[in-house]
Write a structure and sequence with these properties.
This protein is α+β, with helices and mostly antiparallel strands. 22% of the residues lie in helices and 33% in strands. It is built from 10 helices and 18 strands.
């Protein structure tokens, strides 16, 4: 069965399939669903990657394409086409990892670097369903815990892959990926349709009509010269005042200091990158509070206040968190990446710095900005 599956994936020269992807915790909270149609054409050389592809996202109303040299992302509501030159489709794959479709399991079909995706030796469990119409295969692995902050935090996290493989078709039907770190669990499931053949003479332009877009007035903007695609919050924007319930995590606010700057951290419990940002936020709260900076967490995802309070205490957060219970602020600011860090002037409420996600470059960029304001 695995031999047939790998042969089918490697030998299919062109085709299409439907994808439905859901990302959630095991408690079925924070669910986000995406649907897309994928069209692809392979190179004749099996050692090469895909020659071209089109991904039409129904849930996000975007269109992504790669013609062998240029990666395109179309935003119909803005009538903008963002382009980026890439040397290979592996480069395009990296771009797609940063998109809203990054969790979709289309890459085993598109990119040779992912093949063969199904190697029997990597799976620990293989079983048939009761109906004996599918095979369920499972693999599990461990990794160093990137969220280890306190000595009592576990050293390792675990990831499990589970594939549902129908016996009547050589393509997976369902892929489940579960990542567990201590009591935190993130869960992704991907529903895949069988690969359908495209018409023999079908080309990329049949599914990605670039000329028609240009005639309709769409503007092409190169990422290299114009920066990233539009983000929900920009430097210079005005952020409204927040009238939200507050959870005070410590007595640090007892000594009131006039705030020159406020840093909002939009986070939620099951966000791994949000965990990574906590030590950094604690550090700058302690370092710059007396100089006029106040850090506020903003949680517009988690519903249970008691669980949030336990989490704040357990993770040692030394700054208060605002509870955006009905997600009014999170929605109005169109926050869809976590953590989102927004630094504003406290009086004018003007944005002076914004960052999405968290890594070492985030801390470096913040340091450069904060030193300009709080010397």
């Amino acid at each position: 069965m695995f031999t047939a599956l790998n042969h089918h994936l490697a030998s299919t020269e062109q085709g299409s399939f439907e994808v439905k992807n859901g990302y959630k915790s095991l408690h079925r909270q924070d669910t986000s669903w995406h649907t897309a149609s994928v069209y692809f054409w392979r190179n004749e050389n099996p050692k090469d990657s895909i020659r071209s592809f089109v991904i039409r996202s129904q849930s996000r109303n975007t269109l992504q394409a790669f013609d062998g040299n240029t990666y395109y992302e179309v935003f119909p509501t803005l009538k903008i086409i963002w382009t980026e030159q890439v040397q290979s489709s592996i480069g395009a794959s990296k771009k797609l990892e940063k998109s809203n479709l990054r969790d979709m399991a289309y890459k085993p079909f598109l990119f040779n670097s992912e093949r063969p995706a199904y190697n029997l030796s990597r799976f620990e469990k293989v079983r048939q369903t009761r109906q004996k119409d599918k095979m369920i295969v499972t693999a599990r692995d461990s990794f160093a815990n990137p969220l280890k902050i306190k000595p009592e935090d576990p050293k390792f996290g675990y990831i499990e892959w589970r594939y549902s493989l129908p016996l009547h078709q050589p393509t997976p039907e369902l892929v489940c990926i579960t990542t567990t770190i201590a009591d935190l669990t993130q869960y992704s499931e991907v529903h895949l349709s069988p690969i359908q053949n495209l018409p023999p003479k079908a080309t990329l332009s049949d599914y990605f009509p670039l000329d028609s877009f240009l005639k309709e007035g769409y503007q092409i903007r190169a990422v290299e010269s114009a920066g990233r695609p539009p983000l929900p919050i920009h430097i210079g924007d005005t952020i409204p005042n927040f009238d939200l319930p507050v959870i005070y995590s410590s007595d640090i606010l007892a000594k009131a200091v006039p705030n020159n700057l406020i840093l909002y951290d939009f986070w939620f419990k099951n966000c791994a990158a949000c965990h990574l940002a906590i030590p950094f936020l604690n550090r700058i709260q302690d370092q710059f509070h007396d100089k006029g900076l106040q850090v506020f967490g903003v949680n517009g995802i988690d519903r249970n206040r008691q669980e949030i309070e336990v989490f704040i205490k357990d993770r040692g957060m030394t700054y208060p968190t605002l509870l955006d219970t009905n997600r009014s602020i999170t929605k109005s600011l169109k926050i869809n990446a976590f953590p989102t860090l927004v630094l504003i002037e406290s009086v004018s409420r003007k944005v002076v710095w914004v960052s999405y996600g968290h890594d070492a470059s985030t801390e470096t960029a913040f340091g450069e900005v904060i030193n300009q304001y709080l010397k």
